[in-house]
Amino acid sequence: MSGFDVVTMGETLLRMAPPGQLRIEQAAYFELEAGGTESNTAVALTRLGVRTTWISRMPENALGLRIARTLMGHGVDTSHIVWAEGERLGTFFVEFGDGARATSIIYDRADSAASRMTPDELPVELFSETGGRHLHLTGITLAISESSAATAGRALALARAAGWSVSFDFNYRSMLWSPEASRSVCHPFAEAADIVFAPIRDAQTHYGLPEEVSPEEALAALRQFFPQATVILTLGGDGSIAAVPGEAPMRQPIFPGGGTIGRIGAGDAFTAGVLYRYLHHDREGWLADALRWGAAAAAMKYTIPGDMGLFEREEVAALVEGGGYSDDVRR
């Protein structure tokens, strides 16, 4: 048996938010959470029963330890963190909107410890046939610095050499880089992946697709770029559309009656649900079941404050099997 089902890497930030829907200028204090797309995915996967490890570079101080201990508390292995003395933890502030006021985010992550990760800091011994099964990467890790992107590239090469499968999520962040820069760096990673995730807006932004493009047309365009991969497009309130190479596209709607308080991290929960079924299902005909698990995990995350999908596998399974929410009170 391999050591880990999923290996991922990236930056986790300290999230600071005013309570409720207060504006930042009104806040007398901030509520603290850990948040990062790769670690969010790792936590959700672990809670679904998947063995995960998260690679990063963190400041060796109370803030870095808080992040690590939070992830450890949810079962994610953190033994491959590189601890850096005297460096800083990236942070972000989130102001939750309501109605006409959108949720807004302010980043303070420049020159963070994670942005300084280098290829020679990777735990090369982990990337073996018995060290892991699957590598998950995102465009955010590529965006935070050139050295971080180089480290992800080295991890990709090591994972491929060890015979692992790979998934890649574009996860474009306009505050980190331009669409042109993102496409030039992300495209080779998607070309090497077995599964490519992208919100439809990222497909439009990166590949010049028109605003009125249909999901089917957007999927067809990405399949031409990445014929080797299962391509999964998320469509917001319209669910998702995806296709395995050589097979017809399939759609998955969202689950009705979902919550509204945990939108941040819902995409990471979707990714976790998909990867869970990908790794624990016969590869023949796996996609429909995986999309359903992804939709259920995302729906559960919408009911949970914070960045992380703190659900149980049994809760997601009940939603998958039941097809919707119940108003019953568990006693």
Describe the structure.
The chain has helices at residues 37-47, 62-73, 139-143, 146-161, 179-191, 200-207, 215-225, 266-279, 287-301, 313-322, and strands spanning 4-9, 13-17, 31-35, 52-55, 57-59, 82-84, 91-95, 104-108, 132-138, 165-169, 195-199, 230-234, 240-243, 250-252. Strands 4-1-9-10-11-12-13-14 form an eight-stranded mixed beta sheet, sandwiched between helices. A four-stranded mixed beta sheet has the order 3-2-7-8. The protein is of the alpha/beta class. The mean pLDDT is 94. The longest helix has 16 residues, at 146-161. α1 packs across α8, α6 (200-207) crosses α7 (215-225) and α9 (287-301) crosses α10. It has one domain (4-9, 37-81, 111-322): Ribokinase (UDP-N-acetylmuramoyl-L-alanine:D-glutamate ligase, 3-Layer(aba) Sandwich), CATH 3.40.1190.20.
Describe the secondary structure blueprint for this structure.
Blueprint lengths: L3 E6 L3 E5 L13 E5 L1 H11 L4 E4 L1 E3 L2 H12 L8 E3 L6 E5 L8 E5 L23 E7 H5 L2 H16 L3 E5 L9 H13 L3 E5 H8 L7 H11 L4 E5 L5 E4 L6 E3 L13 H14 L7 H15 L11 H10 L9
Parallel strand pairs: 1-4, 1-9, 2-7, 5-6, 9-10, 10-11, 11-12
Antiparallel strand pairs: 2-3, 7-8, 12-13, 13-14
Helix pairs in contact: 1-8, 6-7, 8-9, 9-10
